Amino acid sequence: MNRTIISSLLATALFAGNALAAPITQSFDTFGTLSGATFSGSGIPNNAVAITNIGSSAGGTGVTLGLTAHQRYFNPELTNDGAGTFFANPGVDTHAPSPANPYATWNFAFYVGGADADSYNYKLFYDFDFGLNTEESEHGQISLSGSFQDSWNLGMDFLDSDIPGLMSSPNFGAFNPGSPGEYSFALVAYDTQGAEVDRSAIAVQVGQIPEPVTLALLGLGLAGLIGVRRKA
User: Fold this and answer.
1) Structural domain for 119, as ranges
2) Left, alpha or beta for 198 (phi > 0: left; psi -120 to 50: alpha)?
3) Chain centroid to CA 144: how far?
4) I want to staple 49 with a disulfide (CB 3.0 to 4.6 A). Which of 34, 67, 124, 229 is the partner?
């Protein structure tokens, strides 16, 4: 895990913003280029970013939130609808540590910057559930503070970890990079009292999304497999 992110996690151990019992839906002020954002990488595109600006008491923008999704290494580029939904292919990436530790062929990337970045606390919500309209309370969440940016893959092991007061994993088994479905993400700013100030949110549609009945049957099948595994 990025050393800056670890420091931010430790700095926000006492922060506990509440997740909502409602689906995460696309949310942003503008969708386009976030100048200066590198997402702690090289060659990561910054021209299709869901951008939210939080005003400063001194005028202008105090904090900028950014969320995007992009291909991992040389996998097929993602497309988008210009309204916060990205489109990716299912499958397992072939660059280490994948496929031994299966990563998706795409990453999600996030950004917090601005003169007032230290005035707020933040949570990054991420999704392992391939079903539609996953409630925010079912997402994994990581508490952060200050300016930061990075690009992660849902296959990264630490995203399936639970550290009380710092991060919790999604309420849905393990991430499967081969599963078609929809995965939602949100980057949320909170004031010092824990009230939400603003957010940026996106969705990534992977492959052909099954109809709701099919999703329900898949869910029952997975539940059965989990039950069998626990009995074994």
Assistant:
1) 3-231
2) beta
3) 13
4) 34
